[in-house]
Amino acid sequence: MKKLITLFLIIVLGTTALIITIHGLSVPMKTAMTSSVEAESSEEAIPDMLTIKDENGHHLDLVIKDIPVYRAYLESQADIKTEMERTQFEVLHIPTEGHFILLKYNCGNKQCSTILVKKTDSKITSVALATGIFQDYKISPEEKEVLLKYGFNEGGEIVRHILITVDLLKMKVVPFESSELAKEYMDKPTWPIVNYQWIDHNRFMIELPDLESSEFETVKSWYASSEKKTKKVEVTIDKEKILDSYNAIEKEK
Helices then strands (H, E): number in the chain? Predict the structure, then answer.
């Protein structure tokens, strides 16, 4: 009887060890297959061109390798085709040589990363701008600069703004002369900007709430008021200190 019990235990233990061994071998195989799929997805080829169509039905082909920031973004994505299909754009009507297109990508909650692209004949230049909700733009009197306005929704109750100046010839960001004004109206969304207008080729005016504090409740009360008092601030730009991109502002801090 003891011999039979011992034989039974040997058979059970041997079967269990075999099952454990087989199971242990199956796990790495599954992981290897997953890694293979991820590698194939990440190596998806980026198309040469991004083709856009303006409101007149004209097609513009943008060479993706000539827009380095956008290409780097696509390279970081698992599904390049989907990301390209999700890319939005706006054609800016600027009466200077070339076509100007604002690419909007990496969008979420209405905010998008943006790049201003200039195409002149076969040459493409670009400058990376803010991540936010692009709203509108205004061209300087000499048509050499453009001001772009971005909105930032806060709790669905108030919107704060920034303004970015771009040199259209050099395709560079032009900072404000005053670092204090830059902090409030360019570097960080602090105030609602009611209106803005160019004064001349170096200066523009900003109209904003006449408030002492930019705290959320204070600005919210201003939005809810029937009599929204405003003030005007004059900003001078510094063309001697142009920046390669809007992100360069963060790097300088």
Answer: 6, 12
CA atoms within 13 A on the CB side of 52: 20
Buried b (16+ CB within 10 A) or exposed e, 81-100: eebbeebebbbbeeeeebbb
pTM for the predicted model, two decimal places: 0.79
Q: What count of other Cβ atoms lies within 10 Å of the Cβ of residue 41?
A: 12
DSSP 84-152: HHH-EEEEE--SSSSEEEEEEEEEETTEEEEEEEEEETTEEEEEEEEEEEEEEEEE-TTSSEEEEEEEE
pLDDT, one tens digit per residue, over 185-225 is 999 999 999 999 999 999 999 999 999 999 999 999 999 99
Query: Residue 235: phi, psi to the nearest 5?
Result: -120, 135
CA separation for the pair 62, 90 (Å, rounded): 14
Question: For residue 217, which phi and psi values (nearest 5 degrees)?
Answer: -65, -35
The b/e string for 109-120 (b: 16+ C-beta within 10 A; e otherwise) is eebbbbbbbbbe
